[in-house]
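Translate sequence into C-alpha cells.
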Amino acid sequence: MKELVEVIAKALVDNPDEVSVIEKKDGRDTVLELHVAPSDMGKVIGKQGRIAKSIRAVVKAASFKDDSRVDVEIVD
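Result follows.
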C-alpha cells in the first residue's frame, strides 16, 4: 500500500523528490502518513478535499482484498 500512495502522490505534485510515505502498523490496522512539500499540499488535498478522499478510497479498495484496514493521513 505504501508504494501505491507514493506513486499516486508523486504523479500529482511538482516536487516528487519531496514525497515520502511512512507506514505505521498496529495489528491489522495500518496508518500511512503522506508527507509532501508545503507548496504541493493543495494539490494533494484538492478542492474541498476531493483528491484526498479519492486517494483514501483507492487505498481502501486495494486493502480490502488483504483483509486489513489502511488509513491515509496527509501530514504537513
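Note: The mean pLDDT is 93.
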